[in-house]
């Protein structure tokens, strides 16, 4: 049976060039952010409703503001995310459905 996803989070993890991971989001800790999301989602029993995916560069003009992420289905873009922001995103956005204004992309 297919699970019904409530949220799909796409987190930029840079790009690969000659099989080497690079890019602004990668260099600013995207791997750690993804790992923290995975741990908290498991901790809070949200794995059936939240899917976290690593992706390449969004190339949408906000690259230098990374790490960047988008949460669907709302299409909310957050920039400059740090590992310290992940718990707040889980608590405020995923659990309560509220947007975190200070992280919104311009």
Automatic annotation (TrEMBL):
Source organism superkingdom: Bacteria
InterPro entries (UniProt xref): Thioredoxin-like_sf
Gene3D superfamilies linked to this entry: Glutaredoxin
Protein name according to UniProt: Ferredoxin
């Amino acid at each position: 049976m297919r699970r019904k996803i409530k949220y799909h989070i796409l987190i930029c993890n840079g790009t690969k060039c000659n099989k080497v991971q690079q890019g602004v989001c990668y260099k600013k800790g995207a791997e750690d952010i993804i790992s923290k999301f995975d741990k908290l989602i498991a901790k809070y029993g949200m794995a059936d409703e939240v899917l976290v995916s690593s992706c390449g560069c969004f190339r949408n003009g906000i690259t230098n503001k990374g790490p960047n992420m988008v949460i669907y289905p709302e299409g909310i873009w957050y920039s400059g995310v740090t590992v310290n922001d992940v718990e707040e995103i889980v608590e405020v956005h995923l659990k309560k459905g509220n947007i975190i204004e200070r992280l919104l992309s311009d």
